[in-house]
Amino acid sequence: MTLKVYLSGEIHTDWREQIIEGAKGLDVSFSAPNTDHDSSDDCGVAILGAEPNKFWHDHKGAKLNAIRTRTLIGEADVVVVRFGEKYKQWNAAFDAGYAAALGKSLIVLHPAEHQHALKEVDAAALAVAEEPAQVVEMLRYVLTGALPA
């Protein structure tokens, strides 16, 4: 059984790469949103045409990105949502809520200092991790039943 894992959330650190590298050898396939900030922001106008008003520029991009996000979350067995330290990831909170509403297995990943701010999101998750390595061990356990050495 290939476990399909969607990696949502902050794009400013290498947490995705840490999880993907750590999961080598496990039967896991990963997907994610477009993590190239500029192309994610500009996809709507690049495909559908320029917009002089920034609101409509962003609106077009958000809608196209939502097609990708909804599709990939819908196909996922597990959704991992990372909240980083530097920026507020409102889209990550939305992804967590969407995954929870779909009944997806949700893992939330954030530093301990965000626990209070994210208590409602954490309450919807099946697991809350502070480090990418913990997510890897969760995936290993789900697939093999093996505990960390």
How is this structure best described in words?
The chain is an alpha/beta fold. It has one domain: Rossmann fold (3-Layer(aba) Sandwich), CATH 3.40.50. 49% of the residues lie in helices and 16% in strands. The chain contains six helices and five strands; from the N terminus they run βαβααβαβαβα. Strands 2-1-3-4-5 form a five-stranded parallel beta sheet, sandwiched between helices. Strand 3 (78-82), helix 4 and strand 4 (105-109) form a beta-alpha-beta unit. The mean pLDDT is 95.
Radius of gyration of CA atoms, rounded to a whole number? 16 Å
Total domain modules: 1
Order of helices and strands: EHEHHEHEHEH
How far the N terminus sits from the C terminus, by CA atoms, comes to 23 Å
The count of β-strands is 5
The main sheet comes to: 5 strands, parallel
CATH architecture annotation name: 3-Layer(aba) Sandwich
Number of helical stretches of at least 4 residues: 6
Shape, per Cα inertia axes? globular
Sheet with most strands: strand arrangement: 2-1-3-4-5
- Overall mean confidence score, pLDDT: 95
> What portion of the residues fall into strands of 2 or more residues?
15-25%
Q: Which parts are unreliable, with pLDDT below 50 for 5 consecutive residues or more?
A: none
Helix content: 40-55%
Oligomer: single chain
